[in-house]
Amino acid sequence: MKTKKRFNKKRTLVFVTTYLLFSLFGAFFQRHALACEVLPVMGYQQINSKVFLAQDISPERTNELSQLVDSAIQRITDVYGAPISKPWILITSDARTSTTWGANETASTHRMPWCTCIIVGPHGQNVDVIAHELLHAEIQHRVGLWRLLKEIPVWFDEGAALTVDYRKPFLPETIKFSHEKIIKVERLDRYKDFFSGNIRENYQASRMAVIPLIREDSFYKDLERIASGETFQTVFLNNDTSKLPKYNVMPEMNTQ
Predict the structure, then answer these.
(1) CA 17, CA 65: separation in Å to the nearest integer?
(2) Were 88 and a residue from 49, 61, 117, 137 both cysteine, which residue would form a disulfide, CB within 3.0 to 4.6 Å?
(3) What are 176-209's pLDDT values in tens digits?
(4) According to the model, what pLDDT value does residue 82 have?
(5) pLDDT tens-digit series, residues 7-50
(6) Among 12, 127, 34, which residue's Cα sits nearest to residue 77?
(7) Integer Cα distance of 85 and 65 in angstroms
(8) pTM
(9) CATH 3.40.50 fits 33-143, yes or no
(10) Domain with CATH 3.30.2010 in the chain
């Protein structure tokens, strides 16, 4: 009996230690997202209860930036319907502030199980970038973080976000890739693989890869099917795409 009790205590100690280590590990790597939770008490200017302006932004720009956020939300609404996610948003014009918040000079989205946090840097203050990041937040909200990490490949997440991002390099009509190149990006399931090598081409290929997979009128419902337990393969890759747009691909070159 004593041996069994010691075993149970040891097992409990191992469990608690492991839990604490994983919690600390996760908190360290998501510390920027956690920091967003205290935005309301950091003294930043507020556009609304979720959107904040860093101290480097002049109060005179409040209306301009508020309109940018509203326009980005409207763009998503026009394509897929009204978004329901409520991410934290911090806008800064200072590259050092972006870095402090774990972002690049354009924009970055930090994820936590219960929310997302978008940092918009000095090069991301436009409708395209903000809509792009807001759709990342919406996808997570509709799917849930754990299902997102398990089922949604990074190339699909990025390609979907680019459907509301109209910057010229990412418009389908300006991308001329071979079918082989588009298929290749679909093997980049992990963030470290996608965000290495020629990252811009990875973005462009992902934009083309989602064309036959996403149906605007059912995108939210398809995401919610994944939240309910269906797989990415079943929901998106098994769609009947016979009536959907084809890839805008270059003809394969005969090298023989």
Answers:
(1) 45
(2) 117
(3) 999 899 999 999 888 889 999 899 999 999 999 9
(4) 98
(5) 455 555 544 443 343 343 344 346 666 778 888 888 899 999 89
(6) 127
(7) 19
(8) 0.82
(9) no
(10) 33-143
Closest by alpha carbon to 219, among 86, 78, 89? 78
Rounded Cα distance between 31 and 25, Å, is: 10
Cβ(174)–Cβ(198) under 8 Å?
no
Q: CA 75, CA 126: separation in Å to the nearest integer?
A: 12
Q: Closest Cα to residue 72, out of 254, 197, 18, 80?
A: 80
Q: How far apart are CA 117 and CA 35, in angstroms?
A: 9
For residues 19, 22, 25, 28, the Cα torsion angle rounded to the nearest 10 degrees is -60
Query: 3-state SS of the chain?
Result: CHHHHHHHHHHHHHHHHHHHHHHHHHHHHCHHHHHHCCHHHCCCEECCCCEEECCCCCHHHHHHHHHHHHHHHHHHHHHHCCCCCCCEEEECCCHHHHHHCCCCCCEEEEEECCEEEEEECCCCCCHHHHHHHHHHHHHHHHHCHHHHHHHCCHHHHHHHHHHHCCCHHHCHHHCCEEHHHHHHHCCCCCHHHHCCCCHHHHHHHHHHHCCCCCCHHHHHHHHHHHHCCCCHHHHHHCCCCCCCCCCCEECCCCCC
pLDDT of amino acid 116 = 93
Q: Which two tokens stand for residue 220?
A: 């939210």
Cβ neighbors of 165 (< 8 A, separation 6 or more) are 128, 129, 131, 132
